[in-house]
Amino acid sequence: MYASEFSCEYSFDELSIRLCDRWETGLLLYGRAELTSAGADYEDEFYVSAIRLDGGARLARPNASNNAGGFESELFRRIASVIEDDKTHAGRHAAELFAIELEQSRETDHDQDQKIKQERNLELLVASH
Predict the structure, then answer these.
(1) 25 in helix, strand or coil?
(2) Is the pTM of the predicted complex or chain greater than 0.85?
(3) Sheet hosting strand 22-37, strand order edge to edge
(4) How is residue 6 annotated by DSSP?
(5) Long-range contacts: 84-92, Cβ < 8 Å, 24+?
(6) For residue 3, what are the β-bridge partners?
(7) What pLDDT digit, counting tens, does each position of 53-71 carry?
(8) Is 118 exposed, middle or buried (0-12, 13-18, 19+ CB in 10 A)?
(9) Which residues contact 75 (CB under 8 A, 6 or more apart)?
């Protein structure tokens, strides 16, 4: 069973990004990233769909209509690339969090499906008497 619209929030502290082909530790970022299911073909994978920095700035994922190539778009790309990369500490942590949250969501969905089936069976039993 696949949760098509699943997403969860990942908090990051002291996230460093790559600048000038090296990890820049003079610029540390704090905030939250929305991790969203990548789709049925990539069942347990995610992408960063939105970022909110602790100072209040909201960064939208660049797309065809929102791809001005400005600073915010580039900042989003650089933060997302760290979080989506399982070779980084933040990326491994985000992947672990996403896997746990997705599994819990699936268990909840399965429990909900079971309760609905039980209720329908009970309704059918009552209706037949």
Answers:
(1) strand
(2) no
(3) 7-19, 22-37, 46-53, 58-60
(4) -
(5) 84/46, 84/47, 84/48, 90/12, 90/15
(6) none
(7) 999 999 989 886 766 678 8
(8) exposed
(9) 59
